[in-house]
Design goal:
Radius of gyration of chain B: 20 Å
Largest sheet of chain B: 8 strands, parallel, barrel
Helix content of chain A: 40-55%
Distance between the termini of chain B: 7 Å
Structural class of chain A: alpha/beta
Radius of gyration of chain A: 19 Å
CATH class of chain A: Alpha Beta
Oligomer: heterodimer
Number of strands of chain A: 12
Number of helices of chain B: 15
Number of domains of chain B: 2
Order of helices and strands of chain B: EHHEHEHEHHEHEEHEHEHHHHEHEH
CATH superfamily of chain A: Luciferase-like domain
Low-confidence stretches of chain B: none
CATH architecture of the largest domain in chain B: Alpha-Beta Barrel
Distance between the termini of chain A: 8 Å
Chain lengths: 338, 356
């Protein structure tokens, strides 16, 4: 069945994150994903706290960067979380610093070079360690000598790779067990999924062996217009996070996106719809069917942060929770029809 | 009579495959239920390169037990201190009113050296503690303040940052110090940390030897102009079970931790040939392979091991002398016993009621 998850933010106090995740589980959401940024809360600690307070919902990072933590640390962290949660954990990774996030990484001294190379090395090491075999690796970014992840659980931990550019999509399909990508207009979304699944096939794996997940702004309304208006600020913010390769694919300029952010009223309803799933329940179901037909397995409610400083606001969490409740009550019970 | 705090050390890699993360949580709940009434208030979790994540385990424990939590110790070389500060602040949000005791150190050469480069241990440690202290206080740090640390983690120069959130929880920073050694680490810990964790402690040390350690750390701290007293914890390494020989056997490997000391042969009664054979054996087969090379009597010179009847007076004596020497926190450490669950029962029924 098509799945819908939620994201909790590393800017939220941990008890807020745990309560939000518990409520998502009660509402029937499939997954809770935790994002990660330098200088913010540790996503594995947040997820461990959520694991101890939930029973069913799947847990994942969306995403943790591969630069600030050594792959051995990432492997041990996700393996521990998997054990703790009774097999509910997946690892989503990225090279870090997509869109405006790059500034945050540079602020703490990270060299943001070679995103494809650093991700390839990290994912290769993580997967090798999770296999339980001794790992010796000498790369440009990481080195290991006869390292073994002990106490390995019997697991099937998936390592999903965040990607939207052609090179990263190729890599995600080659070494990852899944894809995490932003949802864009239909042509963009289809292109992203086609590139990823094409790479999966070239790597000799089957479609069922990988997961496809997209971060997505979702709103259910009494009518299409009210859902669009709910999402207007979120989509304006989300578009400002698009990476240069995505902008190129979409034919958008950085200036255009900044103008949307400065004056959200310039954002046309059609554009908001392209970057989201929104409308009445029936309209949302139709859009989800279209996404499923393209090869998508899951979306999670994204709703980006507004402040670059990552300043937490309980009102913003409540705004998200209002829509999480509504989607839980009205859309999730009908996912079986997607 | 010892009137300080008692803690217990959860040695994740010694607990081994029988204790996956969820079992560690259940085991700690059992410890809290059985030893809490006898004054064991803190669970310290060790770092382990290649085993389970200390931070993930601690996060789970924070939700399931009401004991204070700590690390003893986290290895400084494995985590960028900026990330570590964020992790510590996140954990302290979970522990809330309970103090989170962040124990740090470069790690044992025997256990760590072949896995990570141990570059300038004391300097690296000192920079890490200073960075953590500032970040956890809500201050900014810059790359200039960590000239040893930032190149180690392949970070570039000239940056300044502070945490994006401030936890209301309390974090105290502790450093590991080896007993009886006037090292640069002892200086850094005494000057910079809230507390010191004295490790590599032989149970047969005299009160005078222990007092000398405590006084030396206090002197260094006073000399550095730090007015807040240094809190002092000490490890009490034990292995207790119904089979005394099996209990002692478990601790033979621990004796190898003393082998990097140049004065080891003279101080601990080894011959040079014995030392060499033990070193070769550890290198080839690990520290758990030493049972034939180290006699039982040698274990008794180092640690508290054996049956409950053999150990109860040794525990009482140890607690009395370390308490008088100025150590306010004793961490029950080591493998605990051949059957760790039985060992907890022994501590609850046979040891602690007699000594506290």
């Amino acid at each position: 069945m098509f799945r819908i998850g939620v994201i909790v933010r590393s800017t939220w106090p941990i008890h807020v994150a745990v309560d939000y995740a518990k409520r998502a589980e009660e509402l029937g959401y499939s997954s809770v994903w935790v994002n990660s940024l330098p200088l913010s809360r540790d996503p594995f600690i947040t997820l461990a706290a959520i694991a101890e307070n939930t029973e069913r919902i799947r847990l994942g990072t969306a995403v943790v960067d591969v630069r600030s933590r050594h792959p051995a640390v990432l492997a041990a962290s996700i393996a521990s979380l998997y054990e703790l949660s009774g097999g509910r954990a997946d690892l989503g990774v990225s090279p870090g610093g997509g869109g405006s996030g790059r500034i945050t990484y540079e602020k703490v001294g990270f060299e943001m070079n070679d995103p494809v190379g650093v991700t390839r090395e990290s994912v290769t090491i993580i997967k090798a360690l999770l296999s339980g075999e001794p790992v010796t690796f000498k790369g440009n970014h990481f080195k290991l000598e006869s390292a073994v992840l002990q106490g390995r659980p019997d697991h099937n931990i998936k390592v999903l790779v965040a990607a939207e550019s052609p090179k990263m999509l190729e890599l995600a399909g080659e070494v990852g067990d899944g894809l995490i990508a932003p949802k864009g207009p239909s042509e963009f979304t289809k292109s992203v999924l086609d590139q990823f699944l094409g790479s999966v096939a070239r790597s000799g794996r089957k479609r069922w062996q990988v997961d496809t997940v997209m971060e997505c702004n979702v709103a259910v309304g009494d009518n299409s217009a009210s859902a669009v208006e709910f999402l207007r600020p979120f989509v304006a913010e989300a578009m400002s996070h698009l990476t240069p390769p995505a902008l190129k694919t979409l034919g958008l300029s950085h200036e255009t996106l900044q103008s949307y952010k400065a004056d959200m009223s310039r954002l046309a309803p059609e554009t908001i719809k392209q970057f989201s799933v929104c409308g009445t329940v029936e309209e949302c179901i139709a859009q989800l069917k279209e996404l499923k037909a393209m090869g998508l397995d899951e979306i999670y409610l994204w709703y980006p942060e507004f402040t670059p400083s990552g300043k937490y606001s309980i009102d913003k969490v409540k705004e998200r929770q209002y829509m999480m409740e509504r989607i839980g009550a009205e859309l999730i019970p009908k996912l079986g029809t997607v | 009579m010892f009137t300080g705090e008692l803690g217990i050390h959860l040695n994740l890699h010694k607990l081994g495959p029988a204790f996956p993360s969820s079992e560690v949580v259940k085991f700690t709940q059992t410890i809290e239920a059985k030893l809490g009434p006898h004054g064991v208030t803190t669970a310290w979790v060790n770092d382990n390169l290649g085993y389970r994540s200390t931070l993930v385990i601690l996060a789970a424990l924070a939700s399931k037990v009401s004991m204070k939590l700590g690390t003893a110790i986290l290895i400084t070389y494995v985590r960028n201190p900026v990330e570590l500060a964020a992790s510590a602040a996140t954990l302290s949000e979970l522990t809330g009113d309970r103090e989170f005791l962040l124990g740090l150190g470069p790690g044992s050469r025997v256990l760590v050296e072949d896995k990570v480069e141990m570059r300038k241990p004391a300097k690296f440690f000192g920079e890490t503690v200073q960075i953590l202290t500032k970040l956890l206080d809500g201050e900014s740090v810059s790359s200039e303040e960590m000239p040893t640390v930032y190149p180690y983690f392949n970070l570039r120069e000239s940056w300044k940052a502070k945490l994006k959130f401030k936890s209301s929880g309390r974090v105290s920073i502790w450093g590991s110090v080896h007993q009886g050694r006037e090292t640069l680490m002892r200086e850094q810990v005494s000057k910079l940390c809230d507390g010191a964790i004295l490790g590599r402690v032989r149970s047969t040390l005299t009160y005078e030897e222990l007092k000398a350690d405590a006084d030396a750390m206090d002197r260094i701290r006073k000399g550095a102009g730090v007015t807040a007293p240094l809190r002092k914890a000490i490890q009490m390494t034990t292995s207790i079970g119904d089979d005394g020989a099996a209990s002692r056997k478990l601790l033979k490997g621990y004796i190898s931790h003393f082998l990097d000391r140049d004065d080891a042969p003279a101080k601990f009664g080894f011959t040079k040939e014995q030392m060499e054979r033990i070193r070769e054996q550890v290198e080839a087969h690990g520290e758990d392979s030493l049972s034939d090379l180290i006699p039982d009597q040698m274990v008794d010179k180092f640690y508290i091991a054996g049956t409950p009847g053999e150990c109860v007076d040794k525990v009482a004596t140890f607690l009395d002398k370390v308490g008088r020497a100025g150590f306010g926190h004793v961490i029950i450490s080591g493998p605990l016993g051949p059957d760790v669950r039985r060992a907890i029962d022994i501590w609850a029924k046979d040891i602690l009621p007699s000594v506290i």
